[in-house]
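Issue 218. Parser rejects a valid record. Input:
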Amino acid sequence: MKQPAESPDELLMRQAIELAAKGQGRVEPNPMVGCVLARNGEVIGEGFHQRYGGPHAEIQALRSLGAGSASGATAYVSLEPCCHHGKTPPCTDSLIASGVQRVVLAMKDPFPQVAGGGIEQLRRAGIEVVCDVLSDRAIELNAPYLKRVNSGKPWVIAKWAMSMDGKIATHTGQSQWITNEQSRQDVHLTRSRMDGILTGMGTVRSDDPMLTARLPEEIGPPPRLAQRIILSRNTLPDASTKLMASARSVPVQIIAGPDIREEDLINCEQLGAMCTRVNEGESSDLIAAALLELGKQGMTNVLLEAGGNLLGGFSDAGEIDEYHVYIGPIRLGNQHAPGPLGGSGIDRISQAPRLKLHHTECFGEDVKIVYRQ
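Output the parser choked on:
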């Protein structure tokens, strides 16, 4: 069936949302926002929120006019303009002063200091406000921000690489490398946009990972430096591990359960790690408490790179929002070779949660599949 043609408002809003996506990894914990200014259907200015603490999308769009005027124009904004003083002045004030006569929004901002106040302020100033244009696309783009505002927890992305027959290692435990260099480079790009990269002690012991974003020179430095996070119930990493040896140059946080001795945490702090105590013993409670703690620290996106036990624990607890699955064109076989998810799992297929396919990509012969809950 042929899809209906998009309206002029939808076409320009799509452009604003595409602009907003350019801020990914640079603006968090703020949302990604884009703005297009148009008069009589013709674009006269545009902008997006480029970095945390910097000018918001509406201000960038107005500045793009140079000596031109926005009088009588329509502003297409992917999120309700702010109406409070934060790190920057209210965007509603600038829109009102600019003389725009109409503002089209993709969605309202649930942030308590906005939450409809921006719309109300614009309407009080006599500006026509149209809401919910391509709201589904705007919600999808800012799903991590919306989750943190509504639940206090960051968005959790679980990542793994596996063979075409669903194994993450051979039955002898060898796992390097299932996927190719292009896929591994894509993982580094994802890491470069994260607030945190979370793993468990099983992975620290078996792989001794560095968990940093290493990008080619032509791409440039990562937009943000992710904190390496170790979730630990019983044991802690020693000074010889790559994570602890680099803790003074790249941040490491240990989130420890109630069974970890205080003197052991002090030793890790002396090595440069930040240590956070979570007084929950059960796996699901420990995971939920850890995520709430990371949300309090302002984290919006966390990448989960771990073994089957911790991945399974997050899955059983319902704490994975997005899956990045890399499939290499090899078969490993053997019923004893490990798969990606441990945990208690489900008993019947009918109980299994159905995920939504977000997108797929190919890296040579490798395939990346992204699912969301």
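Fixed in the parser; the record now loads. The chain is about 30% helix and 20% strand.
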